[in-house]
Write a structure and sequence with these properties.
This protein is an alpha/beta fold and 320 residues long. It has helices at 2-11, 49-67, 71-97, 110-113, 116-119, 136-163, 166-170, 195-203, 212-221, 235-247, 256-266, 280-287; strands at residues 13-14, 17-22, 34-39, 121-122, 190-191, 229-231, 251-252, 267-271, 274-277, 299-301, 308-310. A three-stranded mixed sheet has the order 6-8-9.
């Protein structure tokens, strides 16, 4: 099980670097101010093929390790994976709850505030160490790295569960049924009458023109798109919209956990001009959180009539 151990270790190990950077938070008449800043671009899948490939290889080798184990041991290994997935949930929860009010401006203690060093291993992060600059670009790279690891772990779990599928057992695997059910009934959100129409009218401008019919079919007829639909704005805005709907009981017969999985399966979003996937941990920290995470919601629900009202935001982040 050496590969499995190495994979789980790599997933939780963040190799921070420190480089000389310009501190964009400080304006001086004498010119730009420079200092030591965190960097993890070398572990961002959008900038490092080496990182993505290494993660994929470790994942595949870990799967091979578990193929050779019996069913009961797989169950125990998956319990350990569940613990790691909970760490990702905690990261996203802390991240959203501590996101600065002034956009793209982070204090040097941000990693300490979100308890990053308690959730994951970071090679140079120490208690009370606040002399290294935390930039918006670094935080974006860090989120991309976290997201890639979480996605890899989700794929790993799905591949292991497939080993215990009924078809595999019929082909000669006589072992007992896994405690992690490999097959689930495909469920979808049920919108209260009129809600899907209102939601589509508000959401359609955030999606490419050629995807708007597919969005309409997904919301009104539960027709799943072949490829994920691209939400052309911040991911927390789309997540918040669905959160408002389910908490107002305008989405029924569907749990928040199911809603999070449905969004993961059918949507992606744009951040920093890059297409990003939703992950369960990211969504869980928004949809299942009691804290209001989204500071720029795209809709609000009128309590008396349950009418959906679009929200528009100026460049200063205020609703005019």
């Amino acid at each position: 099980m050496e590969h499995f151990k190495e994979y789980l270790s790599f997933i939780q190990n963040f190799n921070f670097r420190v480089n000389e950077i310009r501190d964009k938070r400080i304006f001086s008449k004498k010119g730009s101010v420079y200092g030591r800043g965190y960097d993890i671009r070398h572990q961002n899948p959008y900038f490092s093929f080496q990182f993505s490939s290494h993660l994929r290889i470790l994942k595949d080798l870990a799967v091979v390790d578990l193929i050779a184990s019996d069913n009961q041991r797989r169950v125990e290994f998956l319990k350990q994976v569940d613990k790691v997935l909970e760490r990702f949930n905690l990261f996203w929860e802390n991240y959203h709850n501590s996101y600065p009010k002034v956009l793209k401006t982070f204090d040097n203690n941000f990693l300490l505030v979100i308890d990053f060093g308690k959730i994951f291993y970071a090679n140079i992060l120490e208690p009370n160490k606040v002399d290294i600059i935390v930039t918006w670009e670094f935080v974006e790279d860090l989120c991309d790295s976290v997201r890639e690891r979480e996605e890899s772990l989700a794929v790993f779990v799905s591949e292991i569960l497939l080993l215990d599928s009924p078809s595999n057992k019929a082909e000669g695997n006589p072992e007992g049924v896994s405690e992690h059910p490999p097959t689930k009934i495909k469920r979808y959100p049920v919108f209260v009458e009129g809600t899907a129409d209102q939601l589509f009218i508000i959401l359609k401008k955030y999606f490419p023109t050629d995807q708007q019919k597919k969005l309409n079919s997904l919301l009104k007829d539960n027709v799943l798109p072949k490829n994920k639909l691209l939400f052309n704005s911040n991911g927390n805005q789309l997540a918040d919209a669905f959160k408002q709907l389910i908490e107002a009981n305008l989405i029924v017969s569907f749990s928040k956990a199911e809603l999070e999985g449905w969004i993961v399966d059918n949507f992606q979003y744009v951040s920093n001009s890059l297409v990003k996937p939703f992950t369960v941990g990211y969504l869980n920290s928004i949809v299942s959180s009691d804290v209001k995470v989204c500071k720029s919601p795209i809709l609000k629900i009128l309590k008396d009539s349950s009418e959906l009202v679009p929200m528009t935001w100026s460049k200063k982040g205020k609703n005019p």
